[in-house]
């Protein structure tokens, strides 16, 4: 990063010049606010239809009942809830997480689970434990923006592997691994989001999953399977997890952020015993112990609440919103635009006609009162200019239709130039 660029980052006191600029560790120099974060300020203005953020619609939760449950935690288990806990996480919650994972076809022991502050912390701990500067981390093209930021924070060499509508392309994965081996480089892991991928909305087919596992096992490469959206499926049958096909070379990440609430920050990693032990040590130095309070709230929720019914409520709502978006895109998008058709999750990935730059178009879109995330944020390199991520999780179907109408206005404005 150039010195000019660094000096333009405002410091917390509001001055344009950061007096600490020379002090930061090398790994902190690359830490800059993501495009998604910068967008939130604009997208949260009431007149703007935000197709940008990936916020779950927590208004669909029975807040009164959750309030009662929180009160019961304090009155019945307050002494434990307000005390330190272990860095591996509450043992009863880890058992419940194993029950939850059976819905994904995973059989696991609570000993192999570590509770994390969302699956985001699991990504951080895994990178902390495995990645030295310049180690290669392979990920899909495009991939989850905050995973890129985490890998970059540990100075990984982030390399993308192409995807098509059936997920990651095995030949490209094979080529990346072979080239790295030939160059004597270390690939620390392959990071993948096989279900309703963020941002592409793509689900990896069963055949691809088998091939990916065969390739990674042959090259002796660890797989990090990130699956926060797996239970949010609106059509079709679930595909088998990579974890269930692996032989100890998969770290599986789960989260309750999308199926319960992101505010509670409950995620987890399921890892081979030796890796799990390292992750617990890393978690200890990162945060000493998890929030016992939040864990006991979630423990009680999973124990006393018909949470599988709640997931169905979410799925009914999100599937209506997905349908509203796909129908509006089909009816209104100009010729030359294409988009994915997610079977679940939160995101559609759109590609604009040749010559239109989604990032450059954003100010025009905001003037039209619609926001999206430009595709460039989802690549560690220069790709993604023709792309945008459109989320359908938060706005109502009516707002989605209006948002797409405004988006089309912005695209047509670019074409008319
Ligand atoms: N992985 C993916 C693919 C995500 O989309 C998200 C949230 N947007 C996360 C991980 C992190 O989620 P959390 O930390 O809330 O579990």
From TrEMBL:
What superkingdom does the record give? Answer: Bacteria
Name its co-factor(s). Answer: pyridoxal 5'-phosphate
Leader sequence residues: none
Q: Which UniProt keywords apply?
A: Aminotransferase, DNA-binding, Pyridoxal phosphate, Transferase
Output one GO BP term: alpha-amino acid metabolic process
One family name in Pfam for this protein: Aminotran_1_2
Which parts of the sequence belong to the Aminotransferase class I/classII large domain? 62-407
Q: For the region Disordered, what residue ranges are annotated?
A: 1-20
- Give any GO molecular function from the UniProt entry: DNA binding
Keyword field contains DNA-binding: yes
SUPFAM superfamilies with a match to the protein in the record:
PLP-dependent transferases
Question: Can you tell me which family this protein belongs to?
Answer: Belongs to the class-I pyridoxal-phosphate-dependent aminotransferase family.
> How does the record describe its quaternary structure?
Homodimer.
Tell me the protein's name: DNA-binding transcriptional MocR family regulator
Query: Source species, please?
Result: Nocardiopsis aegyptia
């Amino acid at each position: 990063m150039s010195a000019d660029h660094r000096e333009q980052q405002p410091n917390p006191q509001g001055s344009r010049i950061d007096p600490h600029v020379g002090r930061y560790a090398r790994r902190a120099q690359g830490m800059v606010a993501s495009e998604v974060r910068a967008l939130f300020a604009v997208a949260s203005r009431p007149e703007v239809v935000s197709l940008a953020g990936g916020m779950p619609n927590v208004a669909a939760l029975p807040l009164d009942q959750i309030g009662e449950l929180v009160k019961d935690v304090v009155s019945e288990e307050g002494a434990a809830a307000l005390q330190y806990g272990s860095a591996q996480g509450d043992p009863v919650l880890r058992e419940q997480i194993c029950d939850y994972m059976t819905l994904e076809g995973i059989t696991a022991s609570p000993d192999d689970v570590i509770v994390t502050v969302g699956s985001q912390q699991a990504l951080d701990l895994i990178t902390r434990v495995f990645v030295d500067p310049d180690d290669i981390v392979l990920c899909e093209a495009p991939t989850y923006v905050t995973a890129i930021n985490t890998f970059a924070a540990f100075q990984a060499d982030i390399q993308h592997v192409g995807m098509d509508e059936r997920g990651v392309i095995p030949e490209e994965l094979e080529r990346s691994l072979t080239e790295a081996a030939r160059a004597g480089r270390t690939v620390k892991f392959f990071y993948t989001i096989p279900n309703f991928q963020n941002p592409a909305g793509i689900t990896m087919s069963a055949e691809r999953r088998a091939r990916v596992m065969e390739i990674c096992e042959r090259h002796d490469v660890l797989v990090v399977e990130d699956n926060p959206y797996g239970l949010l499926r609106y059509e079709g049958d679930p595909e088998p997890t990579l974890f269930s096909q692996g032989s100890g070379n998969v770290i599986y990440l789960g989260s309750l952020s999308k199926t319960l609430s992101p505010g509670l920050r409950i995620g987890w990693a399921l890892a081979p015993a030796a890796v799990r032990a390292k992750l617990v040590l890393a978690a200890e130095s990162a945060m000493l112990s998890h929030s016992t309070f939040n864990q006991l709230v979630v423990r009680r929720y999973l124990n006393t609440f018909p949470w599988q019914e709640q997931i169905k409520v979410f799925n009914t709502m999100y599937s209506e919103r997905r349908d509203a978006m796909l129908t509006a895109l089909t009816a209104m998008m100009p010729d030359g635009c294409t988009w994915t058709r997610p079977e679940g999750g939160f995101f559609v990935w759109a590609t604009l006609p040749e010559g239109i730059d989604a990032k450059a178009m954003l100010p025009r879109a905001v003037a039209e009162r619609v926001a999206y995330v430009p595709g460039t944020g989802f690549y560690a390199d220069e790709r993604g200019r023709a792309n945008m991520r459109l989320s359908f999780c938060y706005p109502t179907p009516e707002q989605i239709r209006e948002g797409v109408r405004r988006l089309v206005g912005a695209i047509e404005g670019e074409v008319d130039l």
